[in-house]
Each structure stands twice: as structure tokens, then as C-alpha cells.
Design a protein that fits this description.
Length: about 230
């Protein structure tokens, strides 16, 4: 499967808690897919989108990794090498950008591609509201055009409803226009939580200097919170 090129994506996030209390919610979101060795390729000539400086939309390296390593691509490659013994020829990051200097990034996904362009590993970076962060590193395999992503034991308290134990199962699907992520949590063999983020590629309009089709998502910008520049 050919991995998509850097772009902005807009879609909907779905959370469905099954145990111990049933609850579900959906909300709009937008993310940016960037090549960490060439972040400006996704930003283009937009005057509203910046890297490591304040703007309407921005990506800041210190929001990811260990918050200190200046080379985020090196951090991910080193993590994958140590955990899986794999090399990463290209590293793509799928993340929520800062909006007016504020960020809410519970999940950032790093796709590690081999020299053939296939996804060989994925790093799921999870943040909680207490300032905690952890990384789940999973091997990826492909059979007959279907991707299979590994699972991982839960390492970080994210919600008081779900505790610290359990095992995550991960799902990934994409084509040249769509990128879909899925995460399912099970505890003692029973399903506890299902989440998904289904997003569609949006082009950057070089004349308007604004991601085309993302205007409506700014209605949700006030829901962002976290570290301000």
C-alpha cells in the first residue's frame, strides 16, 4: 500500500465507552500529516501555518517525543530501533496542530516507512491531562493489501473510568484520500473502549493561504487546551 503524501486532514473522532459506564461522543477534528525530515512540505506557502513559532496553526517539536530532543525524527527512529530492531527510512507524523498557540493532542501517530515505502512500524504517542506521556511501538505487517498492527499493554492512566490496566488493539486503514485510525481497549478479556478517527485529505489553497474546507472546524478550537507558547 502506498502511503499518502503530506497534507492536512479533517474528520470526526468517535469515543464509545462500553464498561463500566456506557457513554459515547463524537466531535470534529483536524490534523496534519508531515514528513519529519521535511515538515514544510505540508505547510507550503500558507501564512497561517508555521513550524516552531506562533501562528493561527502551528506544529511545535517540543509538544512531542520527550519534549527535549531537538530532532523529532531521530527520537522516533531511535525508539523503533531499540524496541523493534527496525530502521525507519522515512518518518511521518499525524498530529493535532496548535490553534492560536494552544494544543490538545491526546494521540499523535508516527508512521515509520521502510525503503520500499511500506509502513513497517507505528509509534502511538499518548498524552493524558496530568502531563503524562508514553509511547506504544508496534510492528506492522501487510497481507493481501490488509494492514495488521500489533497490540500493546496499557502503560498510562488516561481516564479515571478505565484504570491503568488493559491491552490496546490498534487498527489502521488508508488510501490516497483517507486516513482512519482505530484503538480498542480490553480489560480481562472484555471490551472497555473503542475509539476511531476517520479523516479525509484537504488541500492547502495557496491563494487563500488557508487549508481548504477547514473553516468549520474552527468552531471547535475553543475546546483546545494545554501548553501555550
Amino acid at each position: 500500500m502506498t502511503f499518502p503524501k503530506p497534507a492536512l486532514y479533517a474528520g470526526k473522532v468517535m469515543h464509545r465507552r462500553i464498561n463500566p459506564i456506557r457513554h459515547s461522543l463524537r466531535y470534529r477534528a483536524f490534523s496534519v500529516l508531515v514528513d519529519l525530515d521535511n515538515i514544510t512540505a505540508a505547510i507550503g506557502d500558507s501564512r497561517l501555518f508555521s513550524h516552531n513559532r506562533w501562528n493561527v496553526l502551528s506544529l511545535c517539536d517540543r509538544d512531542h517525543g520527550d519534549g527535549e530532543t531537538p530532532d523529532l525524527a531521530w527520537f522516533v527512529r531511535d525508539l523503533v530501533r531499540k524496541r523493534l530492531g527496525l530502521g525507519a527510512y522515512r518518518v511521518y507524523m499525524f498530529a493535532f496542530p496548535r490553534v492560536f498557540g494552544y494544543v490538545f493532542n491526546p494521540l499523535t501517530v508516527f508512521f515509520c516507512l521502510d525503503r520500499s515505502g511500506a509502513v513497517a512500524a507505528i509509534v502511538y504517542e499518548v498524552n493524558n491531562t496530568f502531563g503524562g506521556r508514553t509511547h506504544y511501538v508496534c510492528r506492522v505487517s501487510e497481507t493481501a493489501g490488509q494492514l495488521s498492527v500489533g497490540s500493546a499493554n496499557k502503560q498510562l492512566l488516561v481516564s479515571p473510568f478505565n484504570g491503568e490496566c488493559g491491552r490496546y488493539g490498534f487498527r489502521l486503514d488508508f488510501d490516497d484520500q483517507r486516513l482512519v485510525l482505530g484503538v480498542a481497549l480490553r480489560q480481562s478479556g472484555r471490551p472497555v473502549l473503542n475509539t476511531s478517527y476517520a479523516s479525509t485529505r484537504r488541500e492547502v489553497d495557496g491563494h487563500k493561504h488557508c487549508p481548504a474546507g477547514l473553516g468549520d472546524t474552527f468552531d471547535d478550537a475553543e475546546g483546545y487546551g494545554g501548553n501555550s507558547l
